[in-house]
Write a structure and sequence with these properties.
13 strands; 10-stranded antiparallel sheet; 3-stranded antiparallel sheet
Length: 240
């Protein structure tokens, strides 16, 4: 497999052939900081271990979760990243990634590189889509977690199969295509929607208080008004 970075015109900045490169698996932990109040609260993250295999990283996580203590109430999630040895990388660059909830249960995964490569995103099957239109979810974004509405999931696998048949060659997306469209703070699609990594959305960890729920409802109603203005009596004709 060849991975690399490219200029906007498609010319390569650098390319790396992975045939002779080893792998390591990084176990990362995300924890909740206090106070933990909606509509937004803070989190922090750090590496727990670098392991030779994904399985050993999972065993490390399971052993960590067997320990006792009130600190376990602050756990938010775990990630395991497949990294390439001998290649410079930042946190968002990996060959594959697995997402686990605070109890260590796998809830999502990405089995293609976040680098530009000959592999890529081929869509999600129905059972790989965790959120649907109208769901309220948590968006984990750097060092904050906030409540959002989901507008659309990543494209389905059938889309990529159809495009491959039409083009007569493999049609794949990249990490920017494995995203949900969400509505955060602004009650209108234009100016208010965001495309966010599929591995950054979670079910709400806490009960949503009435004040935060009212704010979410107001944003959602503003969005629905936009849909009705654009599509009249048939707002469901709008794809998002």
């Amino acid at each position: 497999m060849i991975i690399g970075r490219y200029y906007a015109d498609g010319s390569p900045v650098e390319e790396v052939n992975l045939r002779d490169k080893g792998r390591m698996f990084e176990l990362e932990l995300c924890v909740i900081k206090h106070p933990r109040r909606y509509p937004e609260y803070n989190v922090d993250y750090g590496s727990l271990a670098f392991c030779e295999t994904k399985e050993s990283a999972e065993e490390m996580m399971k052993g960590f979760l067997k320990e006792d203590g009130d600190w376990k109430k602050d756990l938010y999630c775990f990630y395991i990243y497949e990294r390439v040895l001998g290649v410079r990388f930042d946190r968002s660059e990996y060959m594959a990634c697995w997402l686990y909830n605070e109890a260590g249960q796998e809830i999502d995964k990405r089995l293609f590189p976040s680098y530009y490569s000959e592999d890529g995103f081929e869509g999600r099957s129905a059972d790989e889509v965790r959120f649907k239109f109208g769901d309220i979810a948590e968006l984990y974004d750097g060092d904050t977690v906030s409540l959002v509405h989901v507008l659309a999931p990543p494209r389905e696998r059938e889309f990529y199969i159809r495009r491959t048949e039409e083009d007569g060659a493999p049609y794949r997306g990249d990490i920017s295509d494995d995203t949900y469209i969400i509505l955060k703070d602004y009650p209108h699609y234009f100016g208010g929607h965001m495309h966010v990594d599929a591995l950054s959305l979670f079910k709400p960890h806490f009960i949503i208080p009435k004040s935060a729920k009212k704010r979410l409802d107001n944003i959602w109603e503003g969005y629905q008004e936009d849909r009705r203005e654009c599509y009249g009596d048939n707002p469901d004709d709008c794809q998002i």
